[in-house]
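Issue 218. Parser rejects a valid record. Input:
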Amino acid sequence: MRPSAEIQTIPSEAVWESPVPGAHWLRMWRLGEWLREPLSPLFETLLLPVLTKGREHSGSGRFGFRMPRAWHMQRPSYMVANGYFFARADPDPLSVLLLPPRFLFSELRGGWVDRWEQQGIRSYIDRLEGYGRQVEQASSSAALLHALDQLALDVAEVWYVLSLASGGAAPLMQFLRGVGGRELRDVLGEDQLILYRGFWTRALEAQHSVYLLAREVSATPGLEAWLDEDALPRLLREPQAVGVATDFRQRVLAHLELYGHETSVLDFATPTLVENPGPLAIALRCYCSPQAADPAQTVERLQQEREEATEKLRGLLKGPRRMLFDTLLRRGQRYAVAREDAVFYLQMGWPVFRALLLELGRRLAEKGTIVAPDDVFFLTTGELHAHALQRSTQKRVREVEERKARRELRRQLTPPARIPAEASAWESAMRWPVNLRRLCAQTESPSSVLQGTAASPGRVRALARVLTSPAEFDRLQEGNVLVAVATTPSWTPLFARAAAVVTDVGAISSHSSIVAREYGIPAVVGTQQATRVIRDGQMVTVDGTAGQVHLE
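Output the parser choked on:
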C-alpha cells in the first residue's frame, strides 16, 4: 500500500489502511472512476505516476502553452492498496487559498481552451502518429521505450485538460446562477441546466455513427445475426465477401478506424474497442430498438430549447450584468464540451500504448523472457527497461504467472469506498472546493432516499438495473434506470435505452451528467452508495431536479 508498486502476495484477509497517519483516501475519485479493477504492474509503475503528477503539477506546457494552475493534493497524492487505486483527499491548504484569485485571473484572461483546440489537439495527434511510426518502422527497443515515456507525458497533459475543464465548469455554473439571480430562476425554474444542453461533442459524433450503423441493420434482413459479441469480431476478421454483410462490414471497419480507440478503463492491459469489438455489437443492439432516438435529432432539439431559454433570459438582463452573464455562460458551456472532447482525445493514446508495448512484448517473447507478447503488462517498468535494453537475461515466466494469478484473486476483493472507513475520521476532511465531508455523511445515511447531485432534470419511476461492467450491458432493458459506479464513453449507448441514470461518483460536469442532459433523461450522480444500496430490479424514483433517488 504505497504510491510505488510493490508486488506482494495477497493476504488471506485484505487490509485497507492509510500509509500516512491522518490522511484521507477515496476509491472512485479522479482517476479512480477509470480504474475500477486491480491494476496491472506495468500500468501501476509506468503510466499511473505520470498521470497523477501531471494533474498535481497543473500540466507541463508540452503543447506550447500553459494552462491555469489548479489546487492540488498533499503528497503522496495517491496510493495503491491490494492492487486498487485510491486518490488522496487532503488538499494542500496553500493551493486552495490561492485558487479563487488564480481562477478568476485565468478566466478573465481566458484563452486556454482556444489554444488547446487550435494548437494542443493538433500537436498531440501529430505526436501520436510519430510514436505509431516507431512500431511500423521496427525501431530499436531503446527508441520504443523513449516513445513510451514521451507518450505518457503527452497523455498526462491531456488528462490535465480533462481535469481542468471538468473542475472549472462547476464554479462557472455557480457564478452564473449568482449573476442571473431572480430572472434566471423565473425563466428557467428548476431546469437551470438547460443552458448546458444541446452541444455536439466527439462522443456524440461516435454515437451518431453507431446509430446509423444500427439503422442499416434494422433495414437489411440478415444483418441482425451478426450483432453478437462473438459474431461481429468474426465478421470483421473475414478477408473475403460475406454476402449481405459485405458493405456493412466495411462501414463498421470505417467506424472503428475513427472511434476504435475507445476503452472503458485506463489500464492499458485492457484491449481497446478496435481490438475487442464485442461491445460495439451491444451498442448496435441498443440503437436497433424502435424507441432509440437519433442522437443528432436529440441534440438539435435540445439546442433549440437552450437558445430560446438563453434569449429570453438575456432580454431581462441589462448592461454590464448581461455582459458578465454572456461571458460566464460561454465559458461554462465551452468547459463542458471541452471536458467530453478531452476524454475522446485522451483515449486516442491507448492504441499507441498497446502497439508499443506489444511490440516490446513480442521481442521479449522471442527471447524467452516471457511466454506471450501480452505478458509484458505483468512486468514492472524497471523490468521492462532492463530486459528490452538487454541489461538482464533473467526469465520472468514464473513471476508473470504469479502476478496474473494474484490479479485474478484481487478481483474477488471488495475495496472500501474510502480509507479510513469510520465516518468520524472524515470530520476533518476538506469542505471546499469539494465538500468531501458531506459526501461522507451521505454514505452513512440509512434513509430510503439517496441524496446526490442533481445532474439532469426530470422525474422517473422505473426498475433499477445495477451494472458493474460493459459485460453486463445486455441486462439493461428499455426503460430501466441505469445504476453504476460511474460511466465512461463506452457506456454511452445505454443512455439511449435508459429512463434515468444514477451513479456513485460524479459531479455536474462528469460524463454521466453531460450525456444524460444531451439525451434528455434524469440523472443523479455522486450518491456514493447507489450500487451498494439499490437492489438489482428494485423499483426506484429518480428525481434529477432535486438530486434524490427514492427507494421502494
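Fixed in the parser; the record now loads. Confidence is low (pLDDT under 50) at residues 1-8.
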